[in-house]
């Protein structure tokens, strides 16, 4: 699997992370920080957080292949790897068809991007691939350290592990809301789910997991929101996270949807780490 990430990491938009937050996550015992929101190819944010910490790993979740060319990203990777060996994982992906004007033939584009990373000296074990469907999950296992699925359920994790087999990294993201009241929790969690219900790659994958058109319509059904944004007290949320481990994940990256994530990081660390 290459870099050892530990069982649990934190995924948030890169703007959330500061050096101070990174140091606290390290002290709490989290294994990795995942930078969301299509980090720039210069990878300056990743380097800043690595500079501020000693042991925690940093990964991108993900660099968009349509936004930054492979040569630029490879040079950034090599700069960071030379400075912080074994602590950075390059996550790449094709993003969303609806949000990228040049988006076409994503599978071919991913293969070509991986070829370019090979040519530029980025090792297989130093990169992972955002993957939802079986074809890209297999590509992730064949050409990278493994797969980084997003907005999926433990059942998807189980299916992904069957495709990958033993060995490749499987590191799904899981949204969480630390809130015991279901109505309040859904109010917090629903916007983080609804955003993706207009994106075909997600809705197609969710239908394959048994969600119906009614579940995916409008703001999303309560059933859908409950599955994709696990909520409850810390112990209940922890069970939702570890369900991915039980289904075959090596590492789960938690995305906290509460307005102030720090108290949630602390509460979950007490029961997960």
UniProtKB/TrEMBL annotation:
Sorted alphabetically, which Pfam families does this protein's record hold?
Answer: Bac_luciferase
Q: Which is one Gene Ontology cellular component term of this protein?
A: cytosol
One term of GO molecular function: oxidoreductase activity, acting on paired donors, with incorporation or reduction of molecular oxygen
Q: What is this protein called?
A: Luciferase-like domain-containing protein
UniProt superkingdom:
Bacteria
Boundaries of every Luciferase-like domain copy? 19-118
């Amino acid at each position: 699997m290459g870099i050892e990430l530990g069982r649990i990491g934190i995924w948030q938009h890169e703007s959330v992370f500061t050096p101070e937050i990174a140091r606290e996550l390290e002290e709490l015992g989290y294994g990795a920080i995942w930078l969301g929101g299509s980090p720039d190819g210069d990878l300056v944010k990743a380097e800043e957080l690595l500079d501020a910490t000693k042991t925690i790993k940093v990964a991108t979740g993900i660099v968009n292949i349509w936004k930054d060319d492979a040569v630029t990203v490879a040079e950034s990777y090599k700069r960071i790897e030379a400075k912080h060996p074994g602590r950075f994982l390059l996550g790449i992906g094709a993003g969303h068809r609806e949000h990228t004007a040049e988006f076409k033939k994503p599978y071919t584009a991913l293969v070509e991007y991986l070829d370019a990373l090979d040519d530029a000296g980025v090792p297989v074990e130093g990169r992972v691939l955002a993957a939802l469907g079986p074809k890209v999950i297999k590509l992730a296992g064949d050409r990278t350290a493994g797969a980084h699925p997003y907005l999926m359920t433990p059942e998807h994790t189980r299916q992904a592990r069957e495709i990958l087999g033993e060995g490749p990294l499987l590191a799904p993201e899981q949204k969480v809301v630390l809130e015991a009241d279901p109505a309040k929790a859904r109010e917090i969690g629903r916007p983080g789910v609804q955003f993706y219900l207009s994106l075909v790659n997600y809705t197609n994958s969710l239908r394959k997991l048994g969600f119906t058109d009614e579940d995916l319509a409008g703001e999303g059904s309560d059933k859908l929101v409950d599955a994709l944004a696990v909520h409850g007290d810390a112990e209940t949320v922890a069970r939702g996270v570890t369900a991915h481990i039980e289904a075959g994940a090596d590492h789960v990256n938690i995305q906290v949807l509460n307005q102030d994530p720090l108290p949630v990081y602390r509460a979950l660390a007490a029961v997960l780490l």
